[in-house]
Write a structure and sequence with these properties.
The complex is a heterodimer. Chain A is α/β, with parallel strands linked by helices. Chain A has helices spanning 45-52, 76-82, 98-102, 113-126, 142-155, 172-187, 199-205, 228-236, 293-301, 323-329, 338-342, 349-353, 369-382, 399-412, 429-444, 456-459, 483-490, and strands at 7-16, 19-29, 34-38, 60-65, 68-69, 83-86, 160-164, 191-195, 208-213, 216-222, 257-266, 270-278, 282-287, 308-313, 331-334, 417-421, 448-452, 464-469, 472-478. Chain A is built from 17 helices and 19 strands. Chain A is globular. Chain A starts with 6 loop residues before the first strand and ends in a 6-residue tail after the last helix. The radius of gyration of chain B is 22 Å and the shape is globular. Chain B has helices at residues 15-26, 30-43, 50-75, 83-98, 115-136, 141-160, 170-177, 185-203, 205-215, 217-222, 227-253, 264-274, 286-305, 310-332, and strands spanning 179-180, 183-184. Classes of the chains: A alpha/beta, B mainly alpha.
């Protein structure tokens, strides 16, 4: 270890009103390492990030960079030369071009567009980012957007970069490319603070890990010395191996199919897809971001209309492109992005959870508040949703609990078939367990489940996993697959 | 959907074509303007005379200044409905302060030379007050400026006793009816201000900051832009432009009507949106907004020349604005938000 660490935060305390976000917590990051920061939702990670980036002042404690005390909060340029952050929420302005985003507020008093585009091109080339600087930033993919943000961060001269859940919205191939780039930059002397819910990624790309729990620092250890179960134990406060949820599900006995897809095609996304899911069966569907798997799930849910082929839900054929018709046929759907498609942020937990069954809560479209509350209370209990009450607005919940509300809602109809897209994205380890547990128990009760996900953990309890590649289902693997085989199939390595 | 899993991140580069498309979108209303000119010429030969064209342009100058102000404010992601009251109150207050009480003045009898300055200062002050409520007290710009619209209109009626002011000092009249180099001064002023605005928003760092703020205010702040200061400046500039529009209108009409500017804000928004300015902020150009003004001015003129009866002209004008909005939506191919 070098004598003066790249970043030190010591004895940081931060309170927001009655809640303590950080209590006497700290972190020390050696130069040139990739340091993981993990913890459950609400452990204080985001607060530490905003203090390390100079967006908020700590109530107590100090931050220093390479031995020097941090600049004043008002000295934005000073902070930006020291530390850069790629936030979960994009800080790209969608209506401006990539070039302008890169040099925002640094264009000079008079903007010379030609030279701006050239400088942007040079900057992107320098980091090997293949994006046209003249494009409007809103058209970029998540991955491209992130690369632009990383390039921008580095262009300020910062040698310490915070990545706040950078992999949450990337597919497996893009994550690998991101990691490759991180390793490359690390060899060039860049220090990273890497925040992720995916412990596998921590082991893959980080050298040191720091765990926060309940606003406190719990441990810092070299990754190599910390077994997986101990890491989870440190995060959750109770040691012991992860439950492998649903592993003990009985074998599927029913032969009744609840979801059948036949020669379904949608130009530009997928073609000639056929499979079926039996009652009580859990089927996984994995593929890279361009495999068309999400479009396929959205077609089944009625959000998209296929060019041809049929979807059959429990014997009925819902009208293509109609969500109400799919729901009526007995389909439950857990959308990809709970913020965008899943929840109405200002409405209460009860209202959000009962949206699809609002018609059953009273006569003639009238919603009886007492009945709704009762239903919501049952859901909160059944799915272990941590909330102050069914009247709490859903945007006050943590990611994992918000996702449980979405799941509760998807299952509120007692669907015959359930389609889920990335059900555990941005959800902490324990919430992940209880989410997958709830899904498995729904399957045991006879619901046919289709899990569309990049996350291997989501797929472990599936009876079989279908692999999509470039719009086609190319492989089917029974339970007990090896991770390497599945990933290879996703990447198209074994493609005929 | 193509290529191997190790395919490069970026899709094929189409930069040059994109830039051309973006420029084309800027010019989207030019064919409409050409079409309207042809229709006008067919409807009435008077249309293409210099006197008529000059008249159309001059009538649109006040509106265009309000659209200029509103477009910048909209691009910054805010709203200002109170512009239509500022255009009446600012000149009314300034004139009231300098003319004798016998002419419905306020009795302060300030030096006449101050009138223009007072008018512009009033506009600035209104913009600053809007900024105070919106930025300091974090109130919704829509409701704040709707409230201000009513308050300012009420102030004007209260101060003038609901009377139109006729005894206008020459200095106040000058800008609205002077002729420079064969064209009304107000047309020159508008042209110059639009040119300045287009250059400023396109080529000044602070102009680009307006787009950045409207596009994503958090990102703009993270980039070190003093967002509140820029928005405040934009709102004050809006008030100033509205006051200037008030001066031009007063000069053109030779009086300050108690309802001066009443109902203009609908047309202002219509022109801005037809011109491609997004109500969501961050999108649109001042050139587009100017085209929107010209389109509306030509439509109005053609309807008048075609002898549409005065009782029906409003309904038809409104209907045409809606059609124009639909067409703008169809041609731009994107939802208006």
């Amino acid at each position: 270890m070098s004598p003066s660490p790249a970043v030190v935060a010591r004895r940081i305390t931060k309170r927001y009103g009655a809640t303590t976000a950080l209590l006497d917590a700290g972190i020390t990051i050696a130069p040139g390492e990739t340091h993981a920061l993990v913890g459950r939702n609400g452990a204080g990670k985001s607060t530490l990030v905003s203090i390390l980036t100079g967006l908020q002042r700590a109530d107590a404690g100090e931050v220093s960079f390479a031995g020097e005390p941090a600049p004043a909060l008002s000295d934005r340029d000073g902070w930006r030369r020291l530390v850069a952050c790629v936030y979960q929420k994009s800080t790209i302005i969608p209506t401006l071009t990539v070039a302008e985003n890169l040099f925002l507020n640094r264009q000079g008093t008079f903007v010379n567009w030609r030279s701006l585009r050239r400088r942007a091109g040079d900057l992107l080339d320098g980091y090997g980012v293949d994006v046209d600087p003249a494009r409007v930033a809103g058209e970029l993919t998540v991955e491209q957007r992130q690369l632009v943000e990383i390039a921008r961060a580095l262009s300020f001269g910062a040698r310490f970069i915070i990545l706040d859940e950078p992999t949450a919205q990337l597919d497996a191939a893009a994550i690998e490319r991101l990691f490759g780039r991180m390793r490359q930059l690390r060899e060039g002397g860049v220090t990273f603070l890497f925040i992720s819910h995916h412990l596998q990624e921590v082991y893959e790309v980080c050298q040191t890990v720091t765990v926060f729990r309940d606003a406190r620092h719990v441990l810092t250890s070299p990754v190599a010395d910390l077994p997986h179960d101990d890491l989870v134990g440190a995060m959750t406060g109770d040691a012991g191996p992860l439950l492998s949820s649903g592993a003990s599900r009985p074998a599927v006995s029913s032969s009744e199919t609840v979801l059948t897809v036949e020669s379904l095609r949608l130009a530009g996304f997928y073609s000639d897809v056929a499979f079926s899911v039996r009652a009580g069966e859990m089927v996984g569907l994995i593929g890279s971001g361009s495999s068309g798997k999400v479009a396929l799930a959205e077609t089944i849910a009625g959000l998209r209309k296929a060019d041809g082929g049929t979807v059959t839900v429990a014997g009925a054929r819902p009208r293509p492109g109609s969500v109400p018709s799919a729901l009526a046929a007995g389909l439950g759907y857990l959308p990809q992005d709970r913020h965008r498609e899943g929840l109405v942020p200002l409405l209460s937990v009860a209202e959000n959870a009962t949206l699809p069954i609002a018609g059953k809560l009273g006569p003639a479209g009238v919603i009886a508040p007492a009945r709704r509350r009762a239903v919501a209370r049952r859901m909160i209990e059944a799915y272990d949703i941590k909330t102050s009450g069914s009247d709490e607005p859903v945007n006050a919940l943590s990611g994992g609990n918000a996702q449980k509300v979405v799941l509760a809602r998807a299952l509120s109809n007692d669907p015959k078939a359930l389609v889920m897209v990335n059900p555990t994205a941005g959800v902490d380890v324990r919430s992940k367990e209880s989410l997958l547990g709830a899904v498995a128990s729904a399957a045991t009760d006879g619901t046919g489940v289709l899990v569309v996900s990049d996350e291997l953990d989501d797929l472990r309890s599936c009876d079989r996993v279908l692999v999509m590649f470039h719009g086609r289902v190319v492989r089917e693997m029974p339970r007990g697959w090896a991770d390497a085989d599945l990933v290879a199939a996703v990447e198209g390595v074994r493609e005929e | 959907m193509t290529g191997s899993p190790t395919v490069a991140v970026a899709p094929p580069v189409r930069g040059s074509r994109r830039v051309q498309l973006a420029r084309f979108r800027d010019l989207a209303l030019v064919p409409a303007i050409v079409l309207l000119v042809i229709v006008g010429a067919v409807v009435d030969p008077v249309f293409l005379t210099k006197a008529n064209i000059t008249n159309v342009l001059q009538q649109q100058t006040e509106l265009s200044l309000l659209v200029l102000a509103e477009a910048i404010i909209l691009i910054a992601g805010k709203f200002d409905l109170s512009l239509e009251s500022t255009i009446g109150l600012a000149p009314a207050l300034a004139v009231g302060l300098v003319i004798p009480a016998a002419s419905n003045g306020l009795g302060t009898d300030l030096p006449v030379a101050l009138a223009i300055l007072l008018c512009l200062l009033t506009g600035l002050a209104i913009g600053a007050f809007n900024g105070l409520l919106i930025l300091r007290f974090k109130l919704s710009a829509f409701i704040v400026t709707l409230g201000m619209l009513i308050v300012l209109r009420g102030l004007q009626i209260g101060l003038t006793g609901g009377q139109n002011l006729f005894d206008i000092p020459q200095s106040v009249l000058y800008l609205g009816n002077a002729v420079w180099l064969g064209l009304p001064a107000s047309i020159w002023i508008c042209g110059a201000l639009f040119a300045a605005g287009i250059l400023a928003l396109g080529f000044l760092r602070h102009g680009r900051a307006v787009y950045a703020i409207g596009g994503n205010v958090d990102a703009a702040r993270a980039a070190g832009i003093r967002t509140d200061r820029v928005v405040w400046t934009v709102l004050m500039l809006g008030g100033l432009l509205a006051a200037l529009a008030g001066l031009l209108m007063t000069g053109r009409l030779g009086s300050v009507a108690s309802a001066q500017g009443d109902g203009m804000i609908f047309t202002v928004f219509a022109a801005a949106v037809i011109g491609g300015v997004s109500l969501d902020g961050g999108k649109g150009t001042l050139f587009g907004a100017l085209c929107g003004v010209i389109v509306l001015g030509l439509i109005n003129n053609i309807l008048t020349l075609a002898g549409v009866s005065a009782q029906w002209i409003q309904a038809i004008y409104g209907g045409i604005i809606l059609v124009a909005l639909i067409l703008a939506r169809v041609t731009s191919g994107k939802a208006q938000d």
